[in-house]
Amino acid sequence: MEKKYNEKILKLFNFLFFFSPLFLALIAVYLKKIHCYQPSPEFYEINNTARSIQYFLYLSGLAVFFFIDGIMHLIQKKIRRKNQFFSPYMFNIIGLGVLNYIGLSGFIGFIISGNISWVIIFCAISFFSGFRFFPSKRNIEKITTVTSQIQKS
Q: How far apart are CA 142 and CA 93, in angstroms?
């Protein structure tokens, strides 16, 4: 009975993590349209630290997008190696959390520069990449199969 309850909670978190890039994009659009959010150009044009942070966020968000398979394979191996409790839903939450970094880096980049296209593009990438970790029956079976193969090796 407790396992069913835990699975329901994990499914709920899965859906929250799945839709969180959309929430970030909506917050950014709200800030831009309703509150006319635009930081001072001196903050991100002249301040080298803010510019460096902005470039780091851009590059690290893209790196997560391009290397998500390797990141998730490494995480899956570490989880299995330690023989910790493993649930496909928990793996989905971890995967969506890693992908949510893309949307979060876009949102922080928006806070630094006020560029709405930055956050919309990064949140769209994060959201559509998240379909891979959507908690459908097919995805759960796929994760369980891959995990059992890793465990055998």
A: 15
Q: What is the CA radius of gyration of the chain?
A: 18
| Residue-wise pLDDT tens digits, 92-151 | 888 899 999 999 999 999 999 888 998 999 999 999 998 887 766 776 676 666 656 555
| pTM, 2 dp | 0.82
The residue count for the chain: 153
Under the banding of pLDDT at 50, 70 and 90, the label for residue 3 is low
Q: Tell me the two tokens of residue 57.
A: 């966020």
The residue among 125, 85, 79, 83 whose CA lies nearest residue 103 is 125
Inter-residue contact 14 to 96 (CB < 8 Å): yes
**Residue 102 structure tokens:** 């893309």
Question: According to DSSP H, which parts of the chain are helical?
Answer: 2-33, 41, 48-66, 68-81, 88-113, 116-129, 137-152
